[in-house]
Design goal:
alpha/beta; 8-stranded mixed β-sheet; elongated
Length: 701
């Protein structure tokens, strides 16, 4: 009768659009009375592993165990003693002990059960080594399954149950999932709330439907840690939107640790999880009347040092397609931020909004890696904490994924707000340092790399992470990551493709430092991305013409040596060395800057006038061109200093091909640009030297 009731409600919800409006509303306002047999008994099999790792102080273990059983007896009393909607509940406890757990038996543990009124217990000793909690869970679940338990409860022995009537709440929740999600009865994963980590799906209650699907095994034959078991089960049924944390059913863990922090890739998160998902999907197809579409899992990872609600709120409140499951990971990289408390207060109970705080400041690369470790989704969207995504960004992500299912990832479009009349903002655009922010607008497919501020990747077993050798604030790590991932997919994945352009996956990237003049960022970027030359030698080339920074450093050194030698042979015996040195430096340094400025004036006034900053005019445009030259030279100087600090002497004079030798590469264009600047510089030096010689020759002796 219960199944009939559920079937009727599912059919009503499926076909309610066919009924007249008033009639339909009246149907949905009435309550369905559950038709349950008065002799229905629902059995909860409680699994309690006891490992000798916990028995260094047996008296402490026994104390914890006694507290657990006391809370179990108190909170299950009303479910066991009274019929609830015609249903009676009972508990069967399964204890599993490892090979060295004899201390537990020697302490007369069975008396504790009887003292708290539990008589249906099963104690089994296994030949497992200390700490084999997950293996013991697996064995005990098989026993509980064979003895027809309806639900399997995964407990640890250092917990206290805080909520009365918890068995009925779980049973009722599974019925509600069946109705709302139109899945078979008892399908899904429902967990307690661990009040210490309220957003983590700890202590799941799993029905025998799961065990039916996996032939009595609650977890695969794989090496699991405790937190992995919890995450695996939650992530498995998340694919159908059937994973829930019951926030009104609480557990308190006595021995609090940091077990829920992930700093490694789980061995099960790829092949094992995917095989399990396929198995559940096959079971659903064979046991459900109506086909159920599996959800696309796409997680968002936001490393955040600013922790600014102005930027985080739009990300957290993004609209999610009904065909998608999304967990948002906010990785806070400033452990002293005053906003952490408020963030946790607002979201820490939501399993789909995870607030994770790095203990020390780790930087962009390691923070993104933490997101990679935490996520178990099919795709991950990296967003920076200073971008505002378009409201439909997840819908656009879903579209491009369906269009290119074998791509390693997608490069979104990151647009800056209009520069308007700001000379500095216009200069940043003219300098070209933000070119790749909008690369998806001009490059359709096989894009070599994109910025990590709006980067959608396919999660895959490729062991590719963001390299922490790059600066904490960023600079080159996204290029290195994308190049490695794209190459891996093309070489190792069937029909695998590199990064595809996704111009409709849009974010607005706000101006750094609120648009205030600040060159240090560009220096730091280049200091980091210069390491790419050594890391990817196949994408580098030699440039015999030095760039601006190399000119300045090189000529300064050469001129200093020349002056010393010249003074020794008294070529300029009647002119003090300091004066000669000053004059020569005066000729060299300004001419490097002037040659860059002349080149950029020609580029932005004649070749492509007002092409990139159409909102600024007149003398302000000229000033923006001049400042763009300074920004680019700052960038080049940072790259040079990076080589020097890393002692990469052999790489000075080498260039990295930013297009990775695709679409013609950047080699010819960059060599041509440097050659023209060099020609201008030589011309200026010849002219100035000639003038200086004339002045010296005509000056009185």
């Amino acid at each position: 009768m219960k199944k009939t009731s559920l079937c009727i409600q599912q059919e009503l919800e499926t076909h309610h659009h066919k009924y007249p409006i008033g009639c339909s509303e009246s149907y949905f306002e009435s309550k369905i009375n559950e038709l349950t047999h008065h002799n229905e008994i629902v059995t909860f099999g409680v699994l309690l592993p006891i490992t000798s790792r916990e028995l260094t102080k047996p008296e402490k273990c026994i104390e914890n165990f006694s507290n657990l059983l006391k809370s179990l007896a108190e909170t299950s009393q009303q479910d066991i003693q009274y019929r609830i909607s015609g249903t009676r509940y009972q508990i069967k406890i399964y204890i599993g002990i490892d090979k060295d757990g004899h201390l537990f038996l020697n302490n007369s543990a069975e008396k504790i059960f009887y003292n708290h009124g539990f008589i249906d217990i099963d104690i089994t000793k296994f030949d497992y080594f200390p700490g084999s909690t997950c293996d013991i869970w697996r064995e005990l679940s098989r026993k509980a399954y064979k003895e027809n338990c309806d639900y399997i409860v995964l407990f640890e022995n250092d917990i206290i149950i805080k909520t009365n009537g918890w068995m009925n709440k779980f049973h009722k929740t599974y019925l509600e999932i069946s109705i709302q999600k139109k899945v078979p009865c008892n399908f899904g994963c429902v967990t307690f709330t661990d009040i210490t980590f309220p957003g983590f799906p700890a202590f799941p209650v799993i029905s025998r439907v799961h065990l039916d699907t996996f032939n009595g095994d609650i977890i695969p034959q794989q090496k699991f840690q405790i937190q992995d078991v919890y995450t695996y089960l939650f992530q498995l049924y998340r694919r159908w939107g059937c994973s829930i944390i019951l926030h009104d059913v609480e557990i308190q863990k006595i021995d609090v640790d940091q077990r829920y922090e992930k700093w490694y890739h789980s061995d099960w998160k790829f092949d094992v999880l995917n095989n399990s998902v396929d198995r559940v999907e096959k079971w659903l197809n064979n046991n459900n009347k109506t086909p159920i579409q599996k959800l696309l899992t796409l997680d968002i990872v936001v490393p955040s040092y600013r922790v600014d609600f102005k930027y985080l709120d739009p990300i957290i409140n993004l609209e999610i397609p009904v065909t998608m499951s999304t967990i948002i990971y906010i990785i806070i990289d400033d452990p002293n931020s005053s906003n952490i408390i408020l963030l946790k207060k607002l979201y820490e109970k939501d399993p789909f909004i995870r607030i994770l705080v790095n203990k020390p400041n780790l930087g962009a690369s390691l923070s993104r890696n933490r997101g990679l470790y935490e996520s178990n989704a099919d795709y991950i969207l990296f967003l920076d904490d200073d971008v505002t995504p378009e409201k439909d960004i997840l819908f656009e992500c879903e579209k491009v994924i369906k269009e290119h299912p074998t791509a390693c990832g997608f490069i979104g479009s990151s647009k800056f707000p209009p520069a308007n009349e700001s000379i500095f903002k216009s200069a940043v655009v003219l300098s070209g340092v933000t070119f790749f922010w909008e690369i998806a607008e001009i490059w359709d497919n096989d894009i070599p790399w994109g910025i990590a501020g709006n980067l959608l990747i396919r999660s895959y077993k490729d062991d590719i992470l963001f390299d922490s050798s790059f600066p904490k604030t960023g600079g080159g790590e996204d290029i290195d990551f994308c190049l490695k991932k794209g190459n891996f997919f093309i070489k190792n994945v069937e029909n695998g493709k590199g990064f595809q352009g996704a111009p409709n996956v849009k974010v607005t990237h706000h101006w750094w430092n609120d648009g205030k003049r600040y060159y240090w960022r560009f220096y730091k970027w280049a200091k980091g991305d210069g390491a790419l030359i050594k890391m990817h030698p196949n994408l580098t080339y030699n440039d015999i013409v030095p760039n601006s920074a190399e000119f300045l450093l090189g000529t300064t050194f050469i001129l200093f040596i020349t002056v010393i030698i010249s003074s020794l042979i008294t070529v300029f015996y009647d002119i003090e060395i300091i004066n000669i040195f000053t004059i020569l430096i005066f000729l060299s340094v300004p001419h490097v800057i002037i040659s860059n400025f002349i080149f950029d004036i020609h580029l932005h006034l004649i070749i492509q006038p007002f092409k990139r900053v159409p909102t600024i005019r007149g003398y302000r445009y000229i000033l923006a061109i001049f400042e763009s030259s300074m920004i680019r030279m700052t960038n080049e100087f940072g790259r040079l200093m990076g080589h020097i600090e890393r002692k990469e002497w052999n790489y000075i004079g080498k260039r990295f091909d930013w297009f990775a030798k695709k679409n013609g590469g950047t080699m010819n264009d960059e060599i041509s640009t440097n050659s023209r600047k060099f020609f201008i510089w030589v011309s200026l030096m010849v002219f100035s030297s000639s003038v200086l010689l004339i002045v010296i020759s005509e000056s009185p002796m």
